[in-house]
Design a protein that fits this description.
Order of helices and strands: HEEEEEEEEEEEEEEEEEEEEEHH
GO cellular component, one term: bacterial-type flagellum basal body, rod
Subcellular location: Bacterial flagellum basal body
Strand content: 25-35%
Family: Belongs to the flagella basal body rod proteins family.
Pfam family, one: Flg_bbr_C
Number of strands: 21
Structural class: alpha+beta
Protein name: Flagellar basal-body rod protein FlgF
Shape: elongated
Largest sheet: 4 strands, antiparallel
Oligomer: single chain
Length: 251
């Protein structure tokens, strides 16, 4: 019974984690370029149980998990979000593979969010102030002239060619780590490649790839699962109480 309570409590922990992930996805439904998190639950190894009776071969009676708390694996879904027209010339979206490159105080970071701004010194920056990288470094926009970005990422202001957006890809984007501000960081040893299969769409933003209806349904499911597991804890506790208080009196 004690193990039953521990097992049920581990289930409550898992359902809390699921709700936190789903709540974060829903909270970022309107965040440009946001990639939703998904999770999987893996149990530990199993131990075989046998009944031993003198003079008889051991009889197999079932299996018991070796660990009470299963392991939760987190991954990011990098599927394409829908493109939404904004008409803002500094809003850019990548249709296809790849990431924009920005420079932070800790080095390069990568994002699918193209809601860029022009800084006071003319640099193309993220809302957090990080410079967007071209093939030659920071992209600096002249103060006058219409900003035009073609499908390959070439940037022109008026008659002046400013540079070309640096668009990169990763052989396994699942290795990227979220670092906040809608940015991803590549772990040590993971080197980006030049992206090939993409089109830059000016005046568009890639929306979050969170499907609100699906996320809400899964949130409700997680809540119901939590409630059922909570009842299991209460049932185990009541049974333990009877075993401790009532059974001794029968003797």
């Amino acid at each position: 019974m004690i193990r039953g309570i521990y097992t049920a409590l581990s289930g409550l922990n898992l359902h809390e984690i699921k709700q936190a992930i789903l709540a974060n996805n829903i909270a970022n439904i309107d965040t440009p370029g946001f990639k939703k998190d998904i999770f999987s639950i893996e149990g530990g190894g199993m131990a075989e149980l046998f009944r031993f009776v003198p003079g008889e071969h051991p009889a197999f009676v079932g299996e018991l998990p070796l660990v009470v708390q299963p392991q939760v694996e987190f991954t990011t879904d990098f599927s394409q979000g829908r493109l939404e027209m904004t008409g803002n010339p500094l809003d850019l979206a990548i249709e296809g593979e790849g990431f924009f490159v920005v420079m932070t105080g800790e080095g390069e970071a990568y994002t699918r969010a193209g809601n860029f701004l022009r800084s006071a010194d003319g640099r193309l920056v993220t809302p957090g102030g990080y410079p967007v990288q071209g093939e030659g470094g920071d992209l600096v926009l002249p103060p006058q002239g219409e900003v035009v970005v073609d499908g390959e990422g070439n940037v022109r202001v008026g008659e002046e060619v400013v540079g070309k957006l640096r668009i990169v890809r990763f052989a396994d984007p699942g290795l990227l780590e979220k670092q906040g501000e809608n940015l991803f960081r590549a772990p040590g040893g993971v080197v980006p490649e030049v992206a090939q299969r993409y089109t830059v769409r000016q005046g568009f933003l890639e929306r979050s790839n969170v499907e609100i209806v699906e996320a809400m349904v899964r949130m409700i499911e997680a809540l119901r699962e939590y409630e059922l597991t909570q009842r299991a804890v209460m049932a185990q506790d009541e049974t333990l109480e009877k075993a401790v208080n009532d059974i001794p009196r029968l003797g």
